[in-house]
Amino acid sequence: MQTLNDLNHDLHCHSNQSDGILSPEELVSRAKSKGVEVLALTDHDSTAGIARAQAQAKLEGMTVIAGIEFSSDWCGRGVHVVGLNVDLDAAALKEAEQQQENRRNQRATTIAERLEKVGVKNSLEGAQAYADSGVLGRPHFARFLVEQGYVSNVNQAFKRYLGAGKPGDVKNMWPDVGEVVGWIRDSGGVPVLAHPMKYTMTRSKLCKLIEDFTEAGGQAMEVISGAQAANVTGDLANIVCKYSLAASCGSDFHVPDQPWQELGRFGRLPEKVQPVWELF
User: Fold this and answer.
1) What's the pLDDT score for residue 253?
2) Per residue in 184-230, pLDDT tens?
3) Per-residue pLDDT reduced to its tens digit, 151-178
4) Which strands, in side-by-side order, build the sheet including 220-225?
5) Alpha-carbon dihedral angle through residues 137, 36, 243, 195, given to the nearest 10 degrees
6) Cα–Cα 20 to 30 A to 230, which of 44, 89, 98, 143?
7) Residues lower than pLDDT 50 in the chain
8) 280/278 Cα distance (integer angstroms)
9) Do the beta carbons of residue 13 and residue 28 sit within 8 Å?
10) What string of H, E and C letters represents the secondary structure of 210-248?
């Protein structure tokens, strides 16, 4: 009989309810086609797509875990914390999502005002059209800029308008990482420090982040985030063992045809770590 440890898990991905481009149903079907058996949908600051993903998962014969990826602040740096196996009916989760939506909407309004000053018209409405009912973010502004011909691709949109130091570079006042960990724990979920190697910080600062995350109640860290070198996986495995954290894995999938972030296409967790799903 197959156990949970034998199944192919992808515990970090995004649909068009945040900054992915596939619907929750399309995402689940693609995950199934890539051999994923347990999928966590972890849209940014939103669980809006979970019910649809879980309904599709029943048709596909697979499991979808309710997840979310919260944006937070640690010492002035943006840090993402994934919540896995959250209770969608928890009051703490609903309040957290509303707070994050308010922050994002305020930021989007300011971005649009700044873009207006450099000649970009109606960007808020355009970005909202791309976001549809999902979480509004900079990628939606980028797609609007491409559509309107201000730039030729999304990368140019960030380089010219939305990236660091550009007109649309509006910092968001995210909550402290400890507060986010509390939201997830109060929602019955497992807090996971997302993609630690994506933060541009020294190893000593990363270890300090992990210490603070753990002291706040964090329970796991992503040892695998998309395609990565074996030595990186081994190093992160050593870190989670040092801090008595469980280990998670995920593609951080957003769009098709990016092989380094394809659903289910990454290595298995090292045997010496505790898989995060053992905490569910």
Assistant:
1) 97
2) 999 999 999 999 999 989 999 999 999 999 999 999 999 999 999 99
3) 999 999 999 999 989 999 988 789 999 9
4) 9-10, 38-41, 63-74, 77-84, 190-193, 220-225, 246-250
5) -30
6) 44
7) 1-3
8) 6
9) no
10) HHHHHHCCCCEEEEEECCCCHHHHHHHHHHHHHCCCEEE
Dist. CA 75–CA 238, nearest whole Å: 24
Provide the token pair at 106. 């305020």
Q: Residues 83, 189: contact at Cβ < 8 Å?
A: yes
Please name the residue that has the structure tokens 């989760």.
93
Count of alpha carbons within 13 angstroms of residue 115, beta-carbon side: 29
Please give the angle made by the CA atoms of 154, 156 and 160, to the nearest 5 degrees: 125
DSSP code at position 13:
B
DSSP reduced 3-state for 183 = helix
Q: Which pLDDT does position 173 carry in this prediction?
A: 84
